């Protein structure tokens, strides 16, 4: 197995700042915008971005939610391993809000499809945008593209993009693994 | 994530502690789902479930049906009173006819003990026992334990009293198995005629003095007197039963502590429990009903997960 580093912690920090600034450019003071991290892995990126927006860019009253999509996935009973649910934490109304989905890696687009269905349980948003740290090009099964992306990666199907965070792996990094 | 160790939910005695824990964790997620503005998830949209009720039921049937619909399964309902069972059809024939309509899961209540086990050996579908005679009612026991866990934080080490008609109660037996798996201490209380002789072999203590039993416990699960299952007189009169084993506010207020009151329903107000106790803030009877939907969603989801395409 070979493992190549795509982004180190410094790269990730620069990208997070850029993404934060792009969000501010489009959403001003976030008064009508909510950030929604997709559980489980998108939540780390979402929390990091929310911290940055609040503490470095002084956005007040930023709303952050976490959305679990397990029960909306289209591969229930089609996988070897059973699906594990995580929790949904959305304590605000989505109705007529601008929603930004946040996930770490965009691959087939099926998780985002599930998230688009799942979010409907909380109301009808004005619009939904997608922010991802890594966009794996040419691997999409569905017509879904990100509005904000950290880095575009051309990886072949056998390769795996692995994102680690300080909170769980003591280090911010993105690797390309080849089995 | 682990899977259930069983292929069907026939009774608590076939489960282990990890299974119960897994069901509760899954139910936690579904409890959050059923408290959303839109209370439905599409997980089971390609699963068909038959609810076969060969015996009367209100709560359990509605609760199962709602759980199935919240998971987006297709549901068909069947009541023995309106069916060809009255024309002499056997159980296997009835079920096989229903299964030939491509049903994946069967939820069954039946007056005969072991009907679920029997069915699981003869038909190709997941079976969920919704009560078989006086034997087991596993989802009721699961939702009872889930409600205790929710109210008191943990089931382990808690003292649970089961009061009333233990002899005819499938709720009592399933509860005893479920609570023992989770490390609770159990006592039963009721007229000696309504306490089965085998109860001590299950490691359950018997107390015939209601006041002493209530002083001992943290939770009292009050059972209904099942007149419809009584072929002989087990006690002289309902009035005498109420005087000796009915729970009222005065007894509870004199305990010196606040115990949790549960009842699987239907309640005979004024017989085993008075109205003011049933509606008191220490009663979690309606929480049990709410939790029933979440717990049943968990059970159905976990069993459906095992059905391979």
Q: What does this entry look like structurally?
A:
The complex is a heterodimer of chains A (179) and B (309). By secondary structure, chain A is an alpha/beta fold. In chain A, 26% of the residues lie in helices and 30% in strands. Chain A has four helices and eight strands; from the N terminus they run βαβαββαβββαβ. In chain A, strands 3-2-4-5-6 form a five-stranded parallel beta sheet, with helices on both faces. A three-stranded antiparallel beta sheet of chain A has the order 1-8-7. In chain A, strand 4 (98-106), helix 3 (110-118) and strand 5 form a beta-alpha-beta unit. The longest helix of chain A has 19 residues, at 9-27. Chain B is of the alpha/beta class. Chain B folds into two domains: 12-136 and 289-305, 3-Layer(aba) Sandwich (Rossmann fold); 138-285, Rossmann fold. Chain B is built from eleven helices and nine strands. Chain B has helices at residues 17-33, 59-70, 91-99, 115-122, 138-152, 170-181, 210-216, 238-245, 249-253, 275-278, 285-305, and strands spanning 48-53, 74-79, 105-110, 126-132, 159-163, 185-189, 205-206, 219-222, 260-262. Chain B is globular, with a radius of gyration of 19 Å. Chain B starts with 16 loop residues before the first helix and ends with a helix. The model of chain B has no long low-confidence stretch (mean pLDDT 92). The A-B interface holds A 68, 70-72, 76-78, 81-85, 87-88, 117, 120-123 and B 1-3, 26, 29, 32-33, 36-44, 71, 301, 304-305, 307-309.
